[in-house]
Amino acid sequence: MPYLGAIADDFTGATDLATMLVARGFRTVVTVGPPGAASADGEEPDAVVVALKSRTAPVDSAVRDSLAALHALRDAGCRRFYFKYCSTFDSTPEGNIGPVADALLDELGAPGTVVVPAFPATGRTVYRARLFVHDDLLDESPMRNHPLTPMRDAHLGRLLAPQTRRPVRLVGHETVRAGADAVRRALHEPSARGTLSVVDAITDEDLRTVAAATDGMPLVTGAAGLALGLSGPHEGTASRARSTAGPGPGVILSGSASATTREQVRHARGRLPHRKLELTALRADLDGAVAALTAFVRDAWHTDPGRPPLLYAADGTEETSEAPPDAAALIESALARCAVELVAAGAHRLLVAGGETSGAVVTALGAGTLRVGAPIAPGVPWVHTEARLAGGRVRPVDLALKSGNFGGRSMFTTAWEELA
Ligand SMILES: Nc1ncnc2c1ncn2[C@@H]1O[C@H](COP(=O)(O)OP(=O)(O)O)[C@@H](O)[C@H]1O
Ligand SMILES: O=C(O)[C@@H](O)C(=O)COP(=O)(O)O
User: Fold this and answer.
1) Rounded to the nearest whole angstrom, what is the distance from the C-alpha of residue 149 to the centroid of ligand 1?
2) Residue 104: in which H helix or E strand, if any?
3) Which ligand is the nearest neighbour of the Cα of 361?
């Protein structure tokens, strides 16, 4: 029976957490929506991560989907739960993190929990409840102008308080540095009961301390960094899945508007065949635009095999924070349709950039379970699955779901080597 059940608010976040859990000794599977009979390569998983597309959904549907995932994970035997959100605390102005945390706690009959978005390996640290992205406060980082989740404050207490019914408090870094017992005492003092405790963490050691202090909590919440401190039953031996698709054509579908992705796009443009999605063309004739984009990719496979073509939505020249309201949905829909057509046309491997984009693509592909394979960069693994196409056709595919701000500059050209 799986022990740990995780609910991730987007798809890149789900594979981010899953790769960390595998590294920590959990046989882990990711399921698209609530799990059925999930297995990790024929073996019973120790951890199941449910990938939702709830980060930017209306609050009601985010809560409903998260509770459905919790029920299914409980039915599957999970006894501890992990609500995974973004290491940059991405939420809409209404905000889904607080309402989902409240609903999960109520359902589990747990009074309160911790809020731990820190992930130092990717430059996210929390000090005095302020979230830093490398050297910048969150609201001074490029997340300030994200098209769907613009982050205009770095103070996690101020971001979270309007989203939750529970009081929000801070467990400061001096307590974390004093060790797991000190954090445990702080979390169990009478004034902490029924609260959401934002916990400072600036190093991996801090995250191990927080994980040790919270090992008795039925629910923890955070980014993937907190899983650094968990120990699965197969430490050192939890195996990684292998490609079932085998060598074959690849494509990069980038709907991410994040600064790191835009740099990766600019780097790849000098090295790979590429086409930008033009909003005016998508709006005028979506079918025609998708047909032109997929024809471009198929042509490039033919004339230039070995160099995966890139379809992308943002390279930094556009003002995404002032994009028209239909832009995000149009781009997601175009890339999802390209994915389906290109898998039907023979794509074996897809690198998809962006969490919302990945949700749209993987859902359109009809994938059920993602098995975690080789790591590419911190937070980004290859995963292996089957696409279910129209007419009952099933195609094995390898996917890399890249979080917007993860991965090095050359990732679009080098990620493929990890599949070899
Ligand atoms: N040029 C653009 N104008 C408006 N929206 C865009 C543009 N490029 C991408 N988007 C949208 O922004 C969102 C990006 O979110 P996501 O895929 O999660 O990636 P990330 O969080 O890394 O930016 C998607 O919904 C995408 O369709
Ligand atoms: O925690 C993280 O930073 C990632 O796992 C994540 O959720 C990133 O989201 P996107 O940038 O939307 O891919």
Assistant:
1) 10
2) helix 97-108
3) 1
E strands present in 67-207: 80-84, 113-116, 124-127, 130-133, 136-137, 168-171, 196-199
Residue nearest atom 17 of ligand 1, based on CA coordinates: 354
What is the atom index within ligand 1 of the atom nearest the CA of 358?
A: 17
Q: Structural domain boundaries of the chain?
A: 4-229, 250-419
d(CA 80, CA 118): 20
CB 89 within 8 A of CB 13: no
Domain 250-419 fold is Molybdenum Cofactor Biosythetic Enzyme; Chain A (3.40.980)
- Phi, psi (5° rounding) for residue 398? -100, 135
Question: Relative to the alpha carbon of 9, which ligand is closest?
Answer: 2
- Given the structure tokens 């923890």, which residue do they identify? 220
Q: Is the ipTM reported for this complex over the cut 0.95?
A: yes
**Per-residue CA distances from 311 to 340, 351, 395, 404, 412 (Å):** 14, 10, 21, 15, 11
Q: Confirm or reject: Cβ of 254 under 6 Å from ligand 1.
A: no
Alpha-carbon distance of 195 to 173, in angstroms, equals 18
130-133, strands of its sheet edge to edge: 124-127, 130-133, 136-137
Decide whether any atom of ligand 1 lies within 6 Å of the 331 Cβ: yes
Superfamily of domain 4-229: Putative sugar-binding, N-terminal domain (3.40.50.10840)
Cα of 354 to ligand 2 centre, how many Å? 8
pLDDT at position 325, please?
79
pLDDT one-digit tens code per residue, 77-119: 999 999 999 999 999 888 999 999 999 999 999 999 999 999 9
What is the pTM (predicted TM-score) of this model?
Answer: 0.96
pLDDT in tens, 271-327: 999 999 999 999 999 999 999 999 999 999 999 998 999 999 998 887 666 777 789
DSSP 3-state of 43: strand
Smallest CA separation from ligand 2 atom 8, residue:
403
Task: Confirm or reject: Cβ of 86 under 6 Å from ligand 2.
Answer: yes
Are 32 and 52 in contact, with CB atoms under 8 Å apart?
no
